[in-house]
Amino acid sequence: MPDQPVERPNILWICTDQQRYDTLGCTGNRFVRTPNLDRLAEQGVLFERAYTQSPVCTPSRAAFLTGRYPRTTRARQNGQDIPADEVLVTRLLADAGYVCGLAGKLHLSACHPATGAATERRINDGYAEFHWSHHPRPDWPANEYGQWLREQGARFETRSFEGSRWVHAGMPAALHQTTWCAQKAITFIEAQAEAGAGRASATRRPWLFSVNFFDPHHPFDPPEDYLRRYLDRLDEVPLPSYRPGELEHKPVFQRIDSQGAYGGRGGFAWAEMSERDHRLVRAAYWAMVDLIDEQVGRILAALERTGQRQRTLVVFMTDHGEMLGDHGFYLKGPHFYEPAVRIPLIVAAPGLGVLQGQRSPALVELVDLAPTVLDAAGLERWPGMQGRSLWPLLTGRASLDRHRDDVYCEYYNGFSHRDAHATMVRTERYKLVAYHGSEPGELYDLEADPDETFNRWDDPACASAKLALLKRLCDRMAWTADPLPVRRGPW
């Protein structure tokens, strides 16, 4: 059983959408303005090699909220509803006395106006406050961000930025969905402080709040003034990592997406984009991150102002990455390159014994977060969970250098390319991707080729490594078998 804290911590769980690892100052980006997230990393642990369990939204979110792999949760696809018998960590916390709230996106069930649903279908998720806004567009009457805009006498609108087909000038910062999400979190934090004022620690109810920003998900539409900051340096913005001809020896899904994201339906055809187009999209994406950082700063300031920072565990992460033109295509799909599956992960808690100013090179997975949160709260691990708690690493009881021998990722008819079924395993040195029922797969020697340019799938010199990785992938697939129901007897 985990050590029981004297007082259960509050949990501020910040999740962005579609954010690459290399988008923060603390992860090496010299263009972005992320002082608040950089400071958060200095106050906690930055995991340098954290990986999602799926390169698309619903499977990833179901995985990190349950601590179970996508095929185990059965929420393997966007547009699919998570089964009602899945148990979210937020429900476990609520059952243990936590007050749980959410602002923004959840996306554990189908979220499309074509379904005819008034809002996203929910299971027993534990959220007592639920300020839902799947995305900024007011497609649903239940979109609280749209309701708030109307209360402000405003309406949601974007326009092409200087005639660009790919980038738009979005809502001003004061009316942006990112700002609205942050304000909901601040209001919740202030209300919890007021509710707990004057109470003894034993009677104060701990809380969890999920801040689920939609950005920096496309469309690329930051506030115009945030984007204009980049224009004077636009020529310095690096072009996407792409070697002409590299897709000839890679899976067909990538060649299709180079002609237009989402199997040709999402735009961003590589051949139609100029160097300035590529740089402008990247600048817009970073500008969206800048706004996220600013709003995270406001939330952290609210924790400080209300005297709750020391007893609050802060998690900052995202659901999956964004290709952003690397390897010749944009957005997401059945792709397992580092920009798509490696994500930022920061955990900080100044008053709870979490290490400060540390970086971990260990391989970790997002399924590890749910058991970590339970450990931090001193609660028993739920038997259906498959992740491995990071709490021993965070508190110095285990080395930050090692956690897993490999990381594992899945795509089962996840979104675009509905005939794609693929799995990935990545070790310290190699990454292998199998496209089930389709050839070729992908094999990269990350020591010799960190940019994943040269596919070694058919290279005889890598045959032994490929065989070992296929065995490892088979093992990981077997280990995703549901641990439930619990075995009760010897036979």
How do you describe this structure in short?
The chain has 491 residues and is of the alpha/beta class.
Which range does the strand content fall in?
15-25%
CATH topology call? Alkaline Phosphatase, subunit A
Helix and strand content put the structural class at: alpha/beta
**Secondary-structure element order, as H and E?**
EHEHHHEEHEEHEHHHEHEEHHEEEEH
The strand order across the widest sheet is: 4-3-7-1-8-9-2-10
What does the model show?
- The chain is built from 13 helices and 14 strands.
- With 491 residues, it is α/β, with parallel strands linked by helices.
- It has a single domain, classed as Alkaline Phosphatase, subunit A (3-Layer(aba) Sandwich), CATH 3.40.720.
- An eight-stranded mixed β-sheet has the order 4-3-7-1-8-9-2-10, sandwiched between helices. Strands 11-12-13-14 form a four-stranded antiparallel β-sheet, with helices on one face. A two-stranded antiparallel ribbon has the order 5-6.
- Strand 5 and strand 6 form a beta hairpin.
- Helix 6 packs parallel to helix 9.
- The longest helix has 31 residues, at 275-305.
- The radius of gyration is 22 Å and the shape is globular.
- The two termini are 27 Å apart.
- Mean pLDDT is 94; it is low at 1-6.
